Amino acid sequence: MAFDPVYLVAFIMGLFSSFHCIGMCGSIIGALTLSLSREIRLHKQRLTPFVLSYNLGRILSYSMAGLIAFMGYDGVIWSGWRCPAQHSA
């Protein structure tokens, strides 16, 4: 099986995006958690619905963005358009 550089690029992008998630998502959930009352923060059972709803919203948002991007890509593929880099010499 031949080496496909697309997989390497996808892997590297995944690594770099994890830093984005730590910086953005981590600080947002930290700020949202600290805005709750102290009695909610100290009890995991009371804190769980807030953290769960944030993460569920985040996952659904990224899924919808991926779906919209895929629909646009799929439309490009079905139209027959090809990137100039894909044309054989």
Structure, explained:
The chain has 89 residues and is mainly alpha-helical. The protein has one domain (8-74). 79% of the residues lie in helices and 0% in strands. The chain contains three helices and no strands. The longest helix has 36 residues, at 44-79. The radius of gyration is 20 Å and the shape is elongated.
Helix segment count?
A: 3
Radius of gyration: 20 Å
The coarse overall form would be elongated
Q: Would you list the SSEs in sequence order as H and E? A: HHH
Which band does the percent of strand residues land in? Answer: under 5%
Largest sheet: none
Unreliable stretches covering 5 or more consecutive residues:
none
- Structural class from helices and strands? mainly alpha
* SS elements, strand count: 0
Helix content: over 70%
> What's the rounded overall pLDDT mean?
82
